[in-house]
Amino acid sequence: MSRGDRREPRFNDDQDRTCCLVTLGEACEKTGWQVPPSTWQLAQLR
After folding, report:
1. Using an 8 Å Cβ cutoff, are 31 and 44 in contact?
2. DSSP codes of every residue in 1-41
3. Other CB atoms within 10 Å distance of the CB of residue 34
4. CB 10 within 8 A of CB 2
5. Cα(25)–Cα(34) distance, integer angstroms
6. What φ, ψ does residue 23 adopt, rounded to 5°?
7. Residues forming beta bridges with residue 44, ordered by sequence position
């Protein structure tokens, strides 16, 4: 499981995780950004 700052959980629960991933997916569709596998860094591809 990935961890946030100070090794705290990144999400509060499965619903929180799902909401984050849906929102991130929508943002990527609108901007053309992509999230590389197994990382949280965003990359804009032109």
Report:
1. yes
2. --B-GGG-BS-SSHHHHHHHHHHHHHHHHHH-EE--TT---
3. 11
4. yes
5. 9
6. -65, -40
7. 33
